[in-house]
């Protein structure tokens, strides 16, 4: 249930409880299978089509969550620019970060609030930043935290220039990732269409009684199982080959 809650949070669906989400998924699944069974009079065709559609829907939701995460990461340069402006105006490093948190990515707002609580409780700035890095567990956050800790320990020398350089670097990285993601989405969309098209044709053909009867036999069931396994393997292979490398955390300790 915790994994479902995290998955829903990545999609921005915090307003729906995990139990209601799972119940809704079950109702949709039953409704889809029942509708296809009513049209084709074949439970195997209905079940196979549901599995194929379900896998693609889950993949689409994961892609949506990944895109939301990438869009939120695109807000990091704005956050760094805001800290740069506040620090340039003479505000302390600690206060600059707190004042600029309205520009931080939305998925980091809870961690920024916890940072303020840590600082208010009397924890040292360095220890509070370490806690922030642990909570966010992100390669981008790691770089920001270590840069800030280094600047704090050295009296802030070179911090503004380093912030500006990091913001520029992140913008270039985000632009590159965005361009690659567009091409990847085109490949994945083509793969989804190629996998789903035969099953759509089968659904249309199964509206004829003789077709449904043929797939209700032992041979027909075997053909459906082989076709379903082949479709899922082909889609998984395309997904595996088109997977993009993820940013790695190198400043964990």
How are the SSEs placed, and which strands pair?
Layout: H1 2-11, H2 18-40, H3 43-73, H4 76-88, H5 93-99, H6 109-120, H7 125-136, H8 139-153, H9 159-205, H10 209-215, H11 218-241
Helix pairs in contact: 2-3, 3-9, 3-11, 4-5, 4-9, 6-7, 7-8, 8-9, 9-11
List keywords for this structure.
single chain, 253 residues, mainly alpha, 11 helices, 79% helix
Structure report:
The protein has two domains: 2-72 and 178-241, no CATH class; 76-157, no CATH class. It is elongated, with a radius of gyration of 25 Å. The chain is mostly helical and 253 residues long. Helices cover 79% and strands 0% of the residues. It has eleven helices and no strands.
Structural class by sheet pairing and helices = mainly alpha
What's the total number of strands?
0
Kindly report how far apart the N and C termini lie.
30 Å
- What number of structural domains do the residues give? 2
Report the uncertain regions: none
Order of helices and strands: HHHHHHHHHHH
Q: So what's the overall shape?
A: elongated
Describe the sheet with the most strands: none
Count up the helices: 11
Q: How helix-rich are the residues, as a percent range?
A: over 70%
User: Which value, in Å, is the CA radius of gyration?
Assistant: 25 Å
Beta fraction: under 5%
């Amino acid at each position: 249930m915790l994994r479902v809650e995290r998955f829903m949070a990545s999609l921005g669906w915090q307003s729906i409880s995990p139990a209601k989400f799972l119940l809704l998924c079950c109702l949709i699944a039953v409704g889809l299978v029942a509708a296809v069974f009513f049209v084709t009079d074949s439970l195997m065709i209905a079940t196979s089509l549901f599995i194929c559609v379900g896998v693609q829907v889950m993949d689409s939701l994961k892609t949506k969550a990944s895109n939301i995460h990438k869009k939120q990461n695109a807000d990091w340069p704005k956050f760094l620019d805001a800290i740069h402006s506040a620090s340039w105006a003479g505000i302390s490093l600690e206060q600059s970060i707190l004042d600029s948190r309205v520009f931080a990515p939305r998925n980091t707002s809870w961690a920024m609030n916890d940072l303020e609580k840590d600082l208010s409780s009397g924890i040292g700035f360095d220890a509070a930043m370490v806690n922030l890095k642990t909570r966010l567990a992100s390669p981008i956050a790691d770089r920001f935290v270590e840069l800030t800790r280094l600047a704090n320990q050295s009296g802030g020398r070179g911090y503004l220039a380093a912030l500006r350089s990091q913001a520029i670097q992140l913008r270039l990285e985000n632009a590159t990732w965005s361009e690659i993601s567009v091409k990847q989405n085109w490949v994945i969309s083509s793969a989804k269409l190629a996998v789903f098209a035969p099953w759509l044709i089968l659904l249309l053909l199964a509206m004829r009684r003789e077709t449904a009867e043929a797939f209700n036999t032992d041979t027909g069931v075997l053909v459906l199982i082989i076709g379903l396994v082949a479709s899922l393997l082909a889609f998984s292979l395309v997904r595996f080959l088109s997977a993009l490398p993820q940013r790695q955390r190198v400043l964990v300790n």
